[in-house]
Design brief:
Helices cover about 20% and strands about 50% of the residues. With about 120 residues, the protein is an alpha+beta fold.
Length: about 120
């Protein structure tokens, strides 16, 4: 009897979750994809997830340099790359909080905010 009640509750809960996802009320794991993020007016998009910061450019850029800074303006991470369209930055050493990334290349200069959760 207890197993039947548990099974019914589990089925109802699963149905409620699926309906909420379909209606856009909750996110699914697939929502955490840089492909779902819009490019900004400078042709850059970023997505922070787990311990990674993904940066993508609408067009390939050359002589890329990016810097991660905190709210105080302290430089925490810096990296240079020759030519890229997408790049990943390991942010595992950063604590949870709000940060900024400065992006410099021959084609793009931008200052973007991200939150590490």
């Amino acid at each position: 009897m207890k197993l039947k009640i548990f099974t019914i509750i589990l089925l109802l809960f699963s149905t409620m979750i699926m309906n909420a996802q379909e209606e856009g009320l909750i996110s699914s794991i697939d929502d955490f994809s840089i492909d779902k993020v819009e490019f900004n007016q400078n042709g850059v998009k970023i997505l922070a997830f787990d311990n990674t910061l993904a940066i993508e450019f609408i067009n390939e850029v050359s002589n890329l340099r990016y810097e991660v800074i905190n709210k105080k303006g302290d430089l925490l991470l810096s990296k240079k790359e020759d030519t890229v369209k997408k790049t990943l930055l390991n942010i595992s050493n950063l604590k949870k909080g709000t940060y900024y990334v400065r992006v410099f290349s021959d084609e793009v200069k931008d200052f973007l905010k991200f939150i590490k959760t």
